[in-house]
Design goal:
Layout (H helix, E strand, L loop, with lengths): L6 H15 L4 E2 L4 E2 L8 H10 L2 H10 L3
Antiparallel strand pairs: 1-2
């Protein structure tokens, strides 16, 4: 998940989640944890996916030295 390496995108997502759902999202470096399926913010995830292209993720990976 490229979200954690893009600080501004990560901040946007966490802020948008809190504004929309009234609580902080439970996130790790490469995961989001939801206790119930109905808690998954599909609309917000759609917006997130539109903000980061496959090319962006590949560029992040390539620049990490892997």
């Amino acid at each position: 998940m490229g979200l954690y390496v893009n600080e501004s995108l990560n901040e946007w997502f966490q802020k948008a989640y809190k504004e929309t759902y009234g609580k902080k999202i439970n996130m790790g470096k490469s995961c989001m944890r939801f206790k119930k399926e109905e808690d998954i913010p599909f609309d917000l995830l759609e917006k997130l996916l539109k903000k980061m292209s496959v090319e962006d993720v590949i560029a992040i990976y390539d620049s990490s030295g892997n």
